[in-house]
Structures are given as C-alpha cells and as structure tokens.
Amino acid sequence: MSTDHVRTLAGLSELLVGWLRRLMPAGPRLDGLTADLPAAFAGRHEPVDAAGCRALQECANVHSRHLELHFDAASAALADDEANGWPPPDPVLVRRRSAGVTAVRRLDDGTWVLTLDTLEPYGLARPYLDAAFALAQGSTRLVLDLRGNGGGDPATVAAIAGRLLGDDAHHLSDVLYRDRRRQWWTTDTPPGSALTQPLAVLVGPRTYSSAEALAYHLQARGRAIVVGEPTRGAADHVTPVRLTREVLGFLPEAEVRDAVTGGNWEGTGVLPDIGHPHATTLEAALALPAEPAQR
C-alpha cells in the first residue's frame, strides 16, 4: 500500500500489519497481531491522528508491549520502504547526560548505589560505567537503581551483567529474528575482577525494554534480589519504521529468550522478589540483610 493514500485508521492498520508480517518471527504473537488489528480497525475511516495512533498501539500492546506509534502532524519525513535500523547516537548528547549515569554514591555503611537511567551504546557509555563501577570496589553491597531506565543497547546490558555475574563468560539470551538467531554473552574478565557483593536491583513501571532485560537476567541467575514494582513487560527488540509522513513506529522484529529460563518478561514484566512502592524502594533494599546472593 502506498503511504500517500494512508489517511484513515483502517489504512494505517493495514499498513502496520504488512510491516509486522515483514519483520516479526512467525508464531502466535504475530498471528494475534495480524488478526486483532484488522478486526478492530477495518471499518475505522476517521483520519489518522494522535488519538487514533494511541488506539492502534493499545490494541497491538496486547501482543507486543514494545510496539509504539508516534504521531507528528508537522513532520515532513518520507515514509520508509525498508527498515533502516537505529540511527547512530549523537555523542554530544550521550556525554551531556553522562551516558545515563545519573548518580553514583557510597553510603555511610559502605553501600554502593548506582542510578542508571539509560543504557547508551557501550562504546560511548563505557568511560562513565568504568568510573561508576570503580567506586563499587571495596563496598559492602551493591544497589543498582533501574526505576527510571527506559532501556537501550543490549551490548551495554551484557557489559554490566558481566561485571556482576562473575569472571567467566555467561550466556545471557538468544534473540530470535524472522531469519536468524543472535546470542548475547558476557565476556571473560581477569580473575577476581567481577563484583561479588550482595546485589539489589530496583525496578518499577518506568523500567523498560533492555533495562528489564538486565534485571531479568540477574534475577534468573540468582545474582540479585529485585525490589520494587513490576516493570512494563516489553521483551521484544524493536526497530524504527517511518510508516507515513506523520507516523513513526517502533515495531517488533525479534523475540528474546533468556538462556536460563527459556522465557522472558513479555506482558508480565519483571516481577520483584520483594514488592515495594516506588517512594520507599531504596529504603526497602537497604533493609535487606547484607548476605551474599545465592549462586
């Protein structure tokens, strides 16, 4: 369908279904999306606007929590014929926000607390993460605060997990695309360099995408106690697609499978070991006994 003629919600739904068939691996979730969207929007002839995009997204989120549609009436961008992947990051912007390292501190009792709000590409994030983790040396325990983390680079997930899971390489996940499979591993590190202190990971409703992956992988391996509220439940890898001039989509192109559980957090979110409301999640983590996590 030419995007020049996509002016109604029915047309946008049809266009979206076509893209999903091109991108997603076969299976019940793709089947659900390609059945439910036409059934819900085939007769919707109202013009595409922000509210309509939200309605389409809500219908799709039953099957893929990570699918997003963004409407901009002033956009002059050309619609995509192919999925071109993510644009390169702006190093100036990444450095301006310290690659998501919002705060790092040592408390009076020796606890190390890192507030990490994005997972920027690892090549740019590494200096900031190195500095943050240097402060963890000699600490009594570790707290990783992901409550405001909207996700980012899986390579950065693997790098952080590698600092916390031990010196040997660990298989984290398989990512299943329509036509291929990719594995994510941590890397071997020098003996004795990994951090082994007790670890708590703080999560909540704003913990999203790759940030959920980091919490899930650490929890699944018994390395961390997860404290807080359930996360949003977006386990797909997505790619940006300009559907029409006005509508930018983030569309699922792959499913994640944790190497230990064989599953993921899609739809359910990462479920805390200790449930606690956002305002006092850190206090709840600090009240935990300072004992090593079970490995």
TrEMBL record:
Where do the Tail specific protease domain residues begin and end?
Answer: 87-277
**Any idea what this protein is called?**
Tail specific protease domain-containing protein
The family database entries (PANTHER family) matched by this protein are listed as: INTERPHOTORECEPTOR RETINOID-BINDING PROTEIN (PTHR11261), RETINOL-BINDING PROTEIN 3 (PTHR11261:SF3)
Q: Which InterPro entries match?
A: ClpP/crotonase-like_dom_sf (IPR029045), Tail-specific_protease (IPR005151)
Q: Which domain of life is it from?
A: Bacteria
Family matches, as SUPFAM superfamilies: ClpP/crotonase
The cross-references to Pfam families, in alphabetical order and at most eight, read:
Peptidase_S41
User: Which organism is the protein's source?
Assistant: Actinoplanes auranticolor
* Biological process per Gene Ontology, one example term: proteolysis
Query: Which molecular function GO terms apply here?
Result: serine-type peptidase activity
